[in-house]
Amino acid sequence: MQVRGIIPPLVTPMRADEEVDYPRLRQLIDHLIGSGVHGIFVLGTTGECYALDAAEKQKVVATTVEHVNKRLPVFAGTGAETTREAIQHTKMAEREGADGVSVITPYFIMPSQAEIADHYRRIAERTSLPVVLYSNPSTCGGLKIEPDTVARLAEVSNIVAIKDSSGDLQNLIETVRLVPDRFAVLQGRDTLIAPALLFGAKGSVP
């Protein structure tokens, strides 16, 4: 899979009773596809992934895959605090027909870079789906995936991209320099999309 372009992380529409509003989710998907985006991404940090239980996550992925109906690639956020749970979410997304997964770093513990690499390798080994790394220090206690670690993980065949939400343009530039051309570096900060593209990013998850 070639990961590129603008892949917006969708909010998860909720009703007043705190249940997922699936008709509005479908409307939002149609609106974004009509606006010319290059992929649909559900259950990211924007998508209230932390607030949904396992059954709700499964239904959001299933509803999205069914409604997109191959018009665009569908990515599902499957990150979790433990490797075991992230693998479980990733297997669910694969069963439901997602085209790829995005996996944020653990957001409570502070693993070393070696442990981060082991976390992602174990997840990638348990799925045939393309895996997008997700580095977002502001929501993960300052934890980020260092460029050298990204370069090592880019050697894994189904780890295909990273969403870099560090807000550090130099960090993104160094990552672009270190990874192979098949690997996509995506900007996660809206204000840095234009310079990121100039320095070799292949798109944005804004």
Specify the biggest β-sheet.
8 strands, parallel
Oligomeric assembly = single chain
Kindly provide the radius of gyration, computed on alpha-carbon positions and rounded to a whole number of angstroms: 16 Å
- What is the number of E strands? 8
Mean pLDDT: 96
Series of H and E elements: EHEHEHEHEHEHEHE
Described by the principal axes of the CA atoms, the overall outline is: globular
Provide the low-confidence segments as ranges: none
Helix content: 25-40%
Q: Give the strand order, joined by hyphens, for the main sheet.
A: 1-8-7-6-5-4-3-2
Q: What's the total helix number?
A: 7
Task: Please give the alpha-carbon distance between the first and last residues.
Answer: 20 Å
Structural class by secondary-structure content: alpha/beta
- What percent strand? 15-25%
